[in-house]
Amino acid sequence: MTVDRSRDTLTPKARPADPIVARAFAGVLSRFHTLGLDSREFSALRRRHLAGPAGDVAAPEACGCDPLRAEEHGELVELLLAHRADRSRETRWLAFTIATACLGDNHLWQDMGLNGREELSGLLRWHFTALYERNVHNMKWKKFFYKELCRQAQVTLCKAPSCRVCTDYAACFGPE
Fold first, then answer.
1. Region class of 111: left (phi > 0), else alpha (psi between -120 and 50), else beta
2. Of 15, 69, 130, 167, whose CB neighbour count within 10 A is largest?
3. What are the pLDDT digits (tens) for 114-137?
4. 108-116 long-range contacts, Cβ below 8 Å, gap at least 24?
């Protein structure tokens, strides 16, 4: 949030739309056709970030996954929201977007339609700073999120469920 100091009062100004954020929303919708947001929030996101053909997507009612994965999606959303840097709608939308992309089979940044891990790390650093800072060993993000969920549940052996089919499994689950 920027602050207008031209008057003696503080007036919040809306940040301009971030093209990386918009690409993440569009990328996840193109692959999963949902974010798990209710229709009101989905419509607001669409108006803010998805003008044009991508904005014509109908709002789904649920996370779009089987019931077992729906619980997982909810836990990922809660993890992200517990570590958000601000209470903005955009950060909330990103929590749902990232959680949905975690259910994919590719690297998280790929399932989000981003150009690389650096873009994903930038989004996490800006919108989920405390969680970003917890990743002191620079783990791959999907692996890190699932390890955090396992740590919260006090489970000692844990891995991201869709990673076993990835061709980069050895690189992600090798030594940090």
1. alpha
2. 69
3. 999 999 999 999 999 999 999 999
4. 108/140, 108/141, 108/142, 109/141, 111/27, 111/28, 111/31, 111/32, 112/24, 112/27, 112/28, 113/23, 113/24, 113/26, 113/27, 113/28, 113/30, 113/31, 114/20, 114/23, 114/24, 114/27
Position 79, amino acid: L
Distance (Å, rounded) from C-alpha 67 to C-alpha 70?
5
Query: Do residues 59 and 37 make contact, with C-beta atoms less than 8 angstroms apart?
Result: yes
Query: Do residues 79 and 152 make contact, with C-beta atoms less than 8 angstroms apart?
Result: yes
CA 115 to chain centre: 15
pTM summary value: 0.74
